[in-house]
Amino acid sequence: MPEGYDYKSSGTNDQGNHYCSRDYGDSAPNQNAYHYSNNDGSYYYSNSNGSTYYNDGQGNANYNPPSGK
Questions:
Q1: What is the Cα–Cα distance from 24 to 31, expressed in whole angstroms?
Q2: Nearest of 26, 16, 63 to residue 48 by alpha carbon
Q3: Can you tell me the distance from the alpha carbon of 31 to that of 34, in angstroms, rounded to the nearest whole number?
Q4: Distance of alpha carbon 15 from its chain centroid, rounded?
């Protein structure tokens, strides 16, 4: 996974849901990685290596590995 990144944006909306996006540059499979976390306890990650992870805050989680893995 690439080490360096630049923050693109982050913040919290009116519902108390937090987000953060990062630019990992041209060498990353997913250049524009981001995550968000909701005030209901759920969260979602779109990672720089192309994998994704979702947790609904109720103990149910779903992980998708990088494409081709």
A1: 5
A2: 26
A3: 10
A4: 19
Collapsed DSSP state (helix, strand, coil) of residue 47: coil
Mean pLDDT split into 10-residue runs, the chain, 69 residues:
67 87 88 92 94 96 85
Can you tell me the distance from the alpha carbon of 40 to that of 55, in angstroms, rounded to the nearest whole number?
A: 11
How far apart CA 42 and CA 46 sit, in angstroms, is 14
Distance CA 30, CA 23 (A): 9
Closest Cα partner for 1 from 19, 20, 25, 37?
Answer: 25
The residue type of 29 is P
The token duo for 20 is: 């953060």
Report residue 67 as tokens. 């494409």
CA 41 to chain centre: 15
